[in-house]
Structures are given as structure tokens and as C-alpha cells.
Amino acid sequence: MATTTTHPSPTSASTRDSGRANVRASGIFYLLTFASSIPALLLIGPVLNDPAYILGSGHDTQVLWGCLLDFVNAVTAIGSAVAVFPVARRVNESLALGFVLSRMVEAAVILIGVVALLTVVTLRQDVGGSAADASALTTTGHALVAARDWTFLFGPGFMVSVNAVLFGTLLYRSRLVPRIIPAMGLVGAPLLLAANLLTFFGHNTQTGGWTMLVTLPVAAWELSIGFYMLIKGFKPSPATS
């Protein structure tokens, strides 16, 4: 009696390899958002914390590096969603597409804040040392920094919660990763959203202890999913085969 050996088709093998590459790329982008956003916040500190920055000697090179890292943060945020989309859409296309769009909104809002701070640097260099009205310059600098603060609330604040709900729900339902990982995001997202709403209505601050505390679960979720996707990828599943 003849036996028949079944070999996986080249197309199926290619699809699996492509899926693994996409997942690992998404993990790399997730980790790059961490590697860029934290030092960026430290580097732009002088322009955020010095009310007279626009009139002083300034730390322009430091601030420019911080703005560049925030730009990297925005680009890699989009990359983390776009890279994993071809795989995630096989599980739930609506959640996968929503994740891409929410990441794009987050990145766009971050870039608005970057442009606001670059404008402060430009004004300081062009007219900060001239005989221009110091009061008007200071007011303009305050307005631009305030705009950046609002973008920080809506970008890495509100939209990060949305991202965690969309991608976390997709991964929790599909079991592509251990459920404890998306669970951290799904628990942390409403807490962070509540803290940001309190900040929006003036009952909290973006750097207050409550905000820092509720940020930890979402930060742990993003760091964990980045390392897991990079090192292990997704678990085998019929939905992603």
C-alpha cells in the first residue's frame, strides 16, 4: 500500500516566516518607543521648567536632541502597530485597524508638541537676545509650552490608554501571548484614563504621584509585550497560520 507524504506548501511557510518577522519588528518598535521617550522627557526639561528660557542663554542643543527623540518616539509608535497589523488582522481586523489608527493619532499629537518646542527654540535664537518686548516673548513661550503640555496629555496620556484597550483586548482574546501581559494593559488603561481626566479638569497634574503610580501597569504592559514579541513572537494559533 502506497503512502503519501504531505509537505507544507511554500506559500504557507512563507506566510509564517513573514508573520514572525512582522511580530518581532513590532516588538523592536515597542522597545524603541521606550528608548526614545524617557530620555526625550529629560532632555526637554529646561524648556519645560524654566519660565524665562526664551530670554536666557538656553540649552538649545539639548532641547533639540530631546525633540528629535520625541520624533523617533512618534515614528516608532506608528511602526509598532503597522508592523503587527498583517498578523493581528487575521484575529480581529477591526481591533487591528483601530490600533493602527490610534497609534497614528498619538504620533500626530506628539509631533504637534515637538513643533511647539522647536518654535520656542527658534524664537529664543532669533529674537531672544534683541531689544524685543521681553514680556511678549515670555508670554509666547509660555503659550507654546502650554500647548506642548496639552499634547502630552492627549498623546501619551489618553491615546496610550486607547492603544492598550485595543491591542490588549485582541491579544487577551486570542491568547497569542500569556494573558497576564495584556491583562496589565487592560487593568492599567482605565486607571490611567481616570488620572488623565482628573488632570484635564484641573484636579491632578501630569507629573503628580497619582499619575506616576497608575502609569506603571501600562508601562509594564508595553515593555513586556515589546520584549515578548521580540524574543518569542506569538504563540501558534490557527487564526494566524
Notes on the protein architecture:
The chain has 241 residues and is mainly α. It has helices at 10-43, 45-49, 60-88, 93-127, 134-174, 180-200, 209-231. It has one domain (19-235). It has 7 helices and no strands. The longest helix is centred in the middle third of the chain and has 41 residues, at 134-174. Residues 1-8 have low confidence and may be disordered.
Poorly predicted tracts of residues:
1-8
**Rg, alpha carbons:** 22 Å
Helicity range: over 70%
DSSP E strands, number: 0
Provide the domain count: 1
- Measured distance between first and last alpha carbons: 32 Å
Shape: elongated
Largest sheet: none
Provide the structure class.
Answer: mainly alpha
Number of helices: 7
Strand content: under 5%
In round numbers, the mean pLDDT is 90
Provide the succession of SSEs: HHHHHHH
